[in-house]
Amino acid sequence: MNPAFFAVSPQDPRYPTALDAIHDPPPLLWIDGLVDALRAPSVAVVGSRAASPYALEVARRLAADLARRGVVVTSGMARGVDAAAHRGALEGGGATIAVLGCGIDVVYPREHAALAGEIRGRGALISEFPPGTPPRKGHFPQRNRIISGLSLAVVVVEAAAESGSLITAEFAMEQGRAVLAVPGNVLGGRNAGAHALLRDGAKLVECADDILEELGTGIGDWGAGIRGTRESEASGLASQDPVLRRMIDGDSYDLDELSDVSGLDRVKLLPRLLELELAGAVRRIEGGRFVRVRPSLPLRTP
């Protein structure tokens, strides 16, 4: 057990912005690791526990490539695809977040104790359940809304028709997140759930570039688009940015209101808000709302 874990509420500035924007954020989030990992753009990579070698390799490669682009990889630390995604992110030199279906001080499954230690050192273990809470069947579907809520997109890598990963995808759609899926073998039904998502309009994923393009960030490193704005005066940014130029000083906005005034859907809006927050141009306040900040100097680098 690591005595350094702590809890944050939505009123705490350390509470993840993306998670605070969902309609049912956890009233208390336990964190063990690097809180800064929760401020960075995140993509969830989830899939089958009894994954094929193909799925494990795809999850590892996608996560490693995302990590190299500066994207945090979020998953559930389960056997199979989840563990492969966490390991891929670590191999890629990036950060990864594991959302637990038990207390923050309980390692489940037990064989992932070493992996949990690596995640803690390079990212974070998080849970809405109080310390000491054992893993229970009903906890895992509940925690899936946090996996999707933390993330700008959910990528499903191999999922059967009744897979828990589809629950995460459903939460993602309800939360206005992008849903993507990796195609796989059509024999045996091992990937029937992911193929159903593709038939219903999920974007097909073959590489990390597909994910970043869906989020509107192009194929360069995450945040490349904002580097130019950090070199500009705040007034110039405000006149050009579709979100900032619609925000009135002194007013606060939730995601739906910002989507209406900016013309951006949630899939494109949330990444932009996170970039603006990191740049110091907007600030999240209580209730998942955002206000505009007017610095007198060029935007600061976080």
Q: How would you sum up this structure, described in words?
A:
The protein is of the alpha/beta class and 302 residues long. It has two domains: 6-214, Rossmann fold (3-Layer(aba) Sandwich); 224-292, Winged helix-like DNA-binding domain superfamily/Winged helix DNA-binding domain (Arc Repressor Mutant, subunit A, Orthogonal Bundle), CATH 1.10.10.10. The protein is 38% helix and 16% strand. The strands form two sheets. It has a nine-stranded mixed sheet, sandwiched between helices. It has a three-stranded antiparallel sheet with strand order 10-12-11. α3 (81-91) links the parallel β4 (72-75) and β5. The longest helix has 16 residues, at 53-68. The chain is globular. Residues 223-238 and 296-302 have low confidence and may be disordered.
User: Average pLDDT, to the nearest integer?
Assistant: 85
Q: Give the uncertain stretches in residue-range form.
A: 223-238, 296-302
Strand order of the main beta sheet, please? 1-2-6-5-4-3-7-8-9
The biggest beta sheet is recorded as: 9 strands, mixed
Strand content: 15-25%
Count all strands and give the number.
12
| Top-tier CATH class of the largest domain | Alpha Beta
